[in-house]
Amino acid sequence: MHIQFKRLRTASAAALLCAGALAAPYASAIPSFSVNPNSNGLSVAGQTFQADTMSGSSSARLVYNGGTSYTGTGYIQYNAFVSTGNGNVPTTISRIGFDYGLYATFVQTFTCSGLLSPGVSCGVTSIALDLWADAGNDNSYSNSTLAAAPVVTTNGTQVKLGTVSSVVAGQAGLNALGGAFQNINSNFALTAAGALFFTSPTPFYSLAFSSFNNTTQGIACNTGPTCAGTTIVAINSESGNTDFNRAVPEPGPLALIGIGMIGLIMARRAGKAKS
Q1: Is 160 domain-assigned?
Q2: Does 273 map to a domain?
Q3: What's the confidence (pLDDT) of residue 262?
Q4: How many Å apart are CA 106 and CA 167, to the nearest integer?
Q5: 249 φ, ψ to 5°?
């Protein structure tokens, strides 16, 4: 119930258990990208760096449209670039949160299996998202409430870096502990300014993957704390990550190889038993 663009990973247990060496390529590191924080007049003190993830927090408000449809409106405020295995890129290099802010605004729709309640599953059916850099890092952010959607109040120059316009796959819902979750794979396209900020690879990745989750204290529903059959949901205290790729990893070939290896192993064992 919050925006997020993150990969929905599936894998065959047979492939992972029986083909460890074959599973390694599928479990490879998240693709990295290069960023020039000094582009677009955002900073003069940064350095070009590599990362593979953007992390941040999100706020969103979901409203019932009728039937099984909901619309969510919100923002993501990114606070760090991450290099897996090395931790956050130092802000003295990235300058994020100092010389500029990085955020996304979005509207998305969900189709759920019933009125939204803990355990009711929802698919993400559409999304429109813009990724922005706030030169000067002087915007203000207001969290969602049951009465109003979250708001980004802009100040000064805003540089559009990228857009998201279609869903590849997405899942969302509420859990029994009062939390909200969402995973979404979407397309991703840089603007001309975005290509100066995200400098490699060229062409840049065409897919974005995000996942965000909140704490129990970060959710409010108009039907009370149980959120049973709720028609308005305010979600705050969400944290998550966004990364990029050119394609959703396909575990199918590994699964087939893993199953094939199981068959070979069983056949060999049967042969030895007969001899």
Answers
A1: yes
A2: no
A3: 39
A4: 13
A5: -55, 135
